[in-house]
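cron nightly-structures :: item 1 of 1
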Amino acid sequence: MVDYFEKNKNSNIVFDLPIYVYENNKKSKTTKHNFKLRNKNIWPKAPPQSCISIKRNFFNRYYKDINNKHFSMLTLDFRLAVLGNVILNEFSVLNKNLTYYFQDSKGESLSKFKKFSINWWHRRRQAHVYTRFISKKYKIQHNISFDFIMTKIISLILLKDLKI
């Protein structure tokens, strides 16, 4: 990571490609990254939070946005990916497996946020709102995407009292 930052002086944040380890001790290497965020208005996909390196000045400058309590369902890695992509127009992934990421079926991500569950939709909506919040705060154009509209509609149906 240090070598990466030394070679890329303008970079502020970099992710690695983790090796996934499952409950049965099966391992799966991530051989290439498909996490590149090409459009600020799409659903951001970031590597899991096994290894993220950020420069201190980036962290200090955006600490309040990273630590915003209004988006309690969002993970740190997601927030950092949004900040890097939306504000800095930067999303770097080092094509190396430097860390292990344990996938536990009883863990929060797989049990509490099972795909298409109420919590999954709620978190997805929070992610869209967070991305819009960051864009608006830093005066960066953000278009409403089809994914946002569908997520909002489904969330309103499932969580009738949830407001944006």
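cron nightly-structures :: done
The longest helix spans residues 118-137.
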